[in-house]
Amino acid sequence: MVFLFHQLHKPALYPNDLWRKNVKHNKLTTKNHSPPTSWDDVAAWYDGWMGQQGGEYHRQVAIPALLNLLEAEAGESVLDIGAGQGVLAPYLQDAGMVYVGVEASPKLVQRARKRHRQARFVQGDARALAGVQGIERAGFDTAVFLLSIQDMDPLNTVLQNAAWALKPGGRLVILMTHPCFRIPRQSGWGWDEQRKLRFRRIDRYLTTLHVPLRPNRHGKRHRTKSFHRPLQAYINGLAECGLLVERVQEIPVQDVAQLANGRLKADKRASAEIPLFLGLRARKVE
Q1: What is the mean pLDDT of residues 95-113?
Q2: What's the whole-number average pLDDT of the chain?
Q3: DSSP the chain
Q4: Higher pLDDT, 108 or 247
Q5: Taking the model in full, what pTM does it have?
């Protein structure tokens, strides 16, 4: 199965290292930042690829998995962090939720508002939600990251802000590419000719990595960035923010034939056994 890592990520809220040196770790900032985002350069490409309802992986794997973890209830308020051009909005609104999407890229916010006119989108930095107009402390029943958290840094600041926005007892759902098996530029598929076995090769895992990604757009190369961390960074980071993990789901693609390489039995088996996505649901301690 060919895995295009950058196509599975949502737009970054703050991929630019220029902002990292100005952020104080483990402290909520109240200033209204408007961080530069390299996703502005690829907004048109990303919006065209995603369309109204999301790409194939989103529609058939990622979004159903997130909804399953979320267990949405009508009337609940939900904050979509890293909303991009708003692909998740209609799914959550159809479930009866009161939706707000926050996104750093001005161009993607504009596209989200045009595509999903019944939803509310605000521009803002997820490291400083207190400075985003209309987002209040303990103002949401739920918060979600759909394929966005691995484009965000520093992680603990992001999680602190998500916890700040949640009501006591509120739920946080993260759906991301599996950090144990899908490491940009440090993992891939291999073939054992003797055993006729498709395997997953992992070159590095425990090291935190900042990985430049360069989607093609009209023949030009524009850089975005992804941040790899080991699984313990997410679990421990959530706990430090008073968000206790209550459910974990590892998601393969065995039920979606067109997303797996069906030419070899070994490929289909590998796709079914080695998860593509990881889902976490945590609850804010009351």
Answers
A1: 93
A2: 80
A3: ----GGGGSPPPSS--HHHHTTPPTTS---S------GGGTTHHHHHHHHTTT--HHIIIIIHHHHHHHH---TT-EEEEET-TTTTTHHHHHHTT-EEEEEES-HHHHHHHHHH-TTSEEEE--TT-GGGSTT--TT-EEEEEEES-GGG-SSHHHHHHHHHHHEEEEEEEEEEEE-TTT--TTTEEEEEETTTTEEEEEES--SS-EEEEE--EETTEE--EEEEE--HHHHHHHHHHTTEEEEEEEEE--TT-GGGS-TTSHHHHHHHHHS-SEEEEEEEE--
A4: 247
A5: 0.81
Q: How far apart are alpha carbons 235 and 227 in whole angstroms? A: 16
Tokens 């840094």 appear where? 153
With beta carbons less than 8 A apart as the criterion, state whether 163 and 284 touch.
yes
Residue-range domain boundaries for the chain? 5-21+30-284
φ, ψ of residue 163 in degrees (nearest 5): -65, -40
The Cα–Cα gap between 281 and 119 comes to 24
- Residue 172 tokens, joined: 């946080």
- In angstroms, rounded to a whole number, what is the distance separating the alpha carbons of residues 136 and 126? 13
Cα(142)–Cα(163) distance, integer angstroms: 10
First vs last C-alpha separation in the chain: 43
- Its CATH architecture, for the domain 5-21+30-284, is 3-Layer(aba) Sandwich (3.40)
